[in-house]
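Open question from group meeting: does this chain pack into something compact, or does most of it stay loose? Before anyone orders reagents, we agreed to write out a predicted structure and look at it together. Recording both the input and the output here so the notebook holds the full record.
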Amino acid sequence: SILEQAKASGFQTLEIGGRGEPTLSSDFIRKVSEAHDLGYKIELLSNAQNYRAILAVLPRISLLTINLNTVNENDFEKIHAPAGDISFQQCVRNIRKIISYISENNLDVGLKINYVVFGPSILSAPAFPELVNRMFAVELGRQRRIHVCFQHMHNYVRGRGTLGIDVNRLSKYLLFFKAFGPNEYLYRYSNVSEFLEKT
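C-alpha cells returned:
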C-alpha cells in the first residue's frame, strides 16, 4: 500500500538498499515484481551475496550497484566485517555471473560498483575504475562499462580506528587524488570530481 500511495503521489524511482542485504529477504523477488508492475524505475544496492535473487529481478531493474568496495581480500574483510557472509573472491565470482547474464540477455541495466575510501585503500582508489573495468572486461564486452562510486567510510565501523582518516591525512590524500592527473577511466567512469568536491 505504501508503494501504491507513493506512486500516486508522483514518486517514480524505488531504491532498494541500505543497511543489511535486501536480496536475503524472503519476499524480495515478489516485492520487486510488485514495484515494477506499479511502474517504478527500480535501483538495487547489493553486496552480490545472493546473486540468484539478483538474476531473477535483473529484467525489472534499471540500475544495479554492488558493494565491492576494495581490490583485495584483506580490505574487503575489514569493510564487510559487520555483514561478513561473503568473501572478496565470492563477490567477484558473483559479479561475473551477474554481468554475464546482463550481456547475454542484452538487458538495459546500469552497473555501478562502490569503492570505500579509507586509510589503507586510498592509494589504490585512483586506479580502481580502470582495474575493475579490466577485471570484468570479458563479461562486459566492448559496449558496456562499470561506473565506480567512491564513498567515505561510514559510521558503522566506529571503533575500528585503523579505518578512519584524520584531517591531516585526508588533506594529503586529496592532493594525491588530484595529482593522479587526467585518467580516462578515473574521470569518465567514476564520481571522482563529485567525491573530491564533497570531501
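Observations to bring back to the group:
The longest strand covers residues 110-117.
Strands lie at 13-16, 41-46, 63-69, 110-117, 147-152.
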